[in-house]
Design a protein that fits this description.
The chain is α+β, with helices and mostly antiparallel strands. Helix content is 40%, strand content 19%.
């Protein structure tokens, strides 16, 4: 008689793998992938599933080689869902299980991506010059350490983070929770984490920062410029328009409202039947400007982005 243990036919032994797990229908499903290929697939670098999957099967437990039955798959994903579609869903939505070295490398890569994005979007509010990635990194480390300290204080019943630059936490923390930064994670995209980092840096100002302005081209038919706006300008728009020399001639016209969104006018001219302006706008005002121009001109006016973030390089 043969010596050894006879394994069930539905058990497949796999080693040296990265697992992607997804809980659905009361069960946990796993697929076995090659190391680093899953990340490349999710970022779009790798598109061939044969290079990502070690085996095109769905498991209940990869380490034990226990494959998922057709009944389990049908109950969780639907009877008409193909095995390929199930694998794709697990691959795209599942949680990636990687080793310590891979996890550290991934965290380091996301960290550098976040710092690079933030450094390209924030500037010194006075000089409009960009900060080096090293300065941004130190500012984020300061916020991260303060966030960790704040969590310890909350555990002791304090519940209030210590502001930077000697600010008292009174007016900023009343009613509105201040943005916090506790460092990068591997479960979220670098872009979304960079947005959180920018919000925290702008709120706490460990170094003086502001969003880099957008450079736009705005066009509008000259016949509409002098028309009264359908909606009265709010206090913010009115104050900006009053501060602009161009906007003090006829309050409440379409032209004045457009100028109220523009922080600095680079050029403006009339080309045939169209008025064209090139200028700089704060990123937070871009959406409102686009909606105003589209609504007031009924689609005849346009707002085009010439530069997403205008900065001045340091000497």
């Amino acid at each position: 008689m043969p010596v050894g243990i006879i394994q069930p036919s539905n058990q497949i032994r796999l080693t040296n793998v990265s697992l992607v797990r997804l809980k659905k229908g009361g069960k946990r499903f796993e697929i076995a992938c090659y190391k680093n290929k899953t990340l490349e697939y999710r970022t779009g670098t790798e598109t061939d599933l044969d290079n990502v999957l070690q085996i095109p099967s769905v498991f209940l437990n990869v380490s034990k080689g226990q494959t998922a039955s057709s009944a389990d798959l049908a109950k969780a994903f639907g009877a008409k869902t193909s095995i390929n579609d199930i694998i794709l869903e697990i691959l795209n939505k599942g949680e990636l299980q990687v080793g310590e070295k891979e996890r550290h490398a991934q965290l380091d890569r996301v960290h550098h991506e976040v710092v690079d994005i933030v450094a390209g979007k924030l500037v010194d509010p006075v000089s409009k010059r960009v900060y080096t990635t090293g300065m941004i990194e130190k500012a984020l480390e300061k916020l991260s350490s303060q966030g960790a300290q704040a969590q310890k204080e909350e555990g002791k019943g304090s519940g209030t983070a210590t502001p930077t630059n000697g600010e008292s936490g009174g007016s900023k923390s009343k009613g509105v929770e201040m943005p916090k930064w506790t460092g990068v994670v591997t479960t979220r995209s670098a872009k979304s984490q960079a947005l959180d980092a920018m919000k925290a840096l702008i709120a706490w100002q460990p170094i003086p920062v502001s969003r880099a302005r957008m450079r736009l081209r705005i066009t509008c038919p000259t016949t509409i410029l002098k028309q009264a706006t359908k909606a009265a300008p709010n206090k913010k728009d009115a104050s900006v328009a009053a501060a602009d020399g161009e906007g003090g001639q006829a309050k409440g016209t379409v032209k004045d409202m457009i100028l109220s969104y523009v922080e600095q006018v680079e050029t403006q001219d009339v080309l045939g039947q169209e008025w064209e302006l090139v200028g700089f706008v704060e990123p937070g005002a871009f959406k409102g400007l686009g909606e105003f121009v589209g609504g007031e001109t009924k689609g005849r006016g346009r707002v085009e982005v010439l530069d997403m973030a205008v900065v001045h390089e340091g000497d």
